[in-house]
Amino acid sequence: MPPRKKVPPQKKQSLKQKVAKTADDARKAAAAVAAAAAATAATATAAGEPALAAAAGAVSGVAGLVALFSTIVQKLANDPPRDDFDEVWVSSAALDENALPTEEPQRTIVLFSVQHAILADNFYALVRALERHDGALEAGNDDAADAQADAAQQNADAITASHQALQDLAFPINGAWTAATAVVPPDFGSLTVEDMRQHFLANWGDPPENPAESPSDSLSAVLAALTGAADDLLQPFDVGLPDPILGADEVPGEPAELIGGDYLSSLADAVAELPGLVVEEE
């Protein structure tokens, strides 16, 4: 009999603890990015800088993807068993670089968004594989449990690669945003929660819980360069928490960087738990 593949419970529990922290930091980051986008759009419009206003719209897309991602990793922290373990899913999300915008800073912003969407799809597939793995174990179906463990490993490997690509883009997007807003700095002092919500809604999609139905121009640019992702990727999980942008009750303070270090650090900590997630036992 070939070795059985197993997800060690203690390893999975450690991963759950790390992704719970990542989810919290992602919610905070999403709100901060949405506020930065809205504050910049207001000053850019007032100053007659349409290119900067368009870049702010693209940044709202980043905020939406980070908010979406928070629900996916929160789902991993709370994953219940599933009984559809006869289905196996390995993420195939990828970047179509030829479909990216050519102008900066939009190109860098959209590239970051696409890479974050790929990471989200990878995590989504990992969540599903782990849920199905647990369901197969509960049903006593060892072959299905093995297949789901194998899918979990492949999705974990995809996460490691896509996370590295995202980390490599953090410095460029922060630098591009700093340069773009240097001449016309965002005005956080006059920004309201409603301003932030309305700017996000205008640059995400309708309805916000399924923006792919009628995506904004900003989101359409991301979707054009994203291939192979799940059809329902942009539909957030209901994790019992308010939307970090639409449910915000205050405007976050001005961030030191567009993509904050706390979020990037906790994300890296979670990804560092993935090696050894699946092991073989005789």
Q: How would you describe the overall organization of this protein?
A:
Helices cover 60% and strands 4% of the residues. By secondary structure, it is mainly α. The protein has one domain (5-277). Helix 1 (9-46) runs antiparallel to helix 2, helix 2 (50-77) runs parallel beside helix 3 and helix 4 (142-180) runs antiparallel to helix 7 (261-271). The N and C termini lie close together (8 Å). The model has no long low-confidence stretch (mean pLDDT 95). Keywords: Membrane, Signal, Transmembrane, Transmembrane helix. Residues 1-19 have a biased composition (Basic residues). Residues 1-46 form the signal peptide. Residues 1-21 are annotated as: Disordered.
Q: Helix and strand layout, with pairings?
A:
Blueprint: E1 4-6, H1 9-46, H2 50-77, E2 94-95, H3 106-139, H4 142-180, H5 193-202, H6 217-224, E3 226-227, H7 261-271, E4 279-281
Antiparallel strand pairs: 1-4, 2-3
Helix pairs in contact: 1-2, 1-5, 1-7, 2-3, 3-4, 3-6, 4-7
Keywords: Membrane, Signal, Transmembrane, Transmembrane helix
Region (Disordered): 1-21
Signal peptide: 1-46
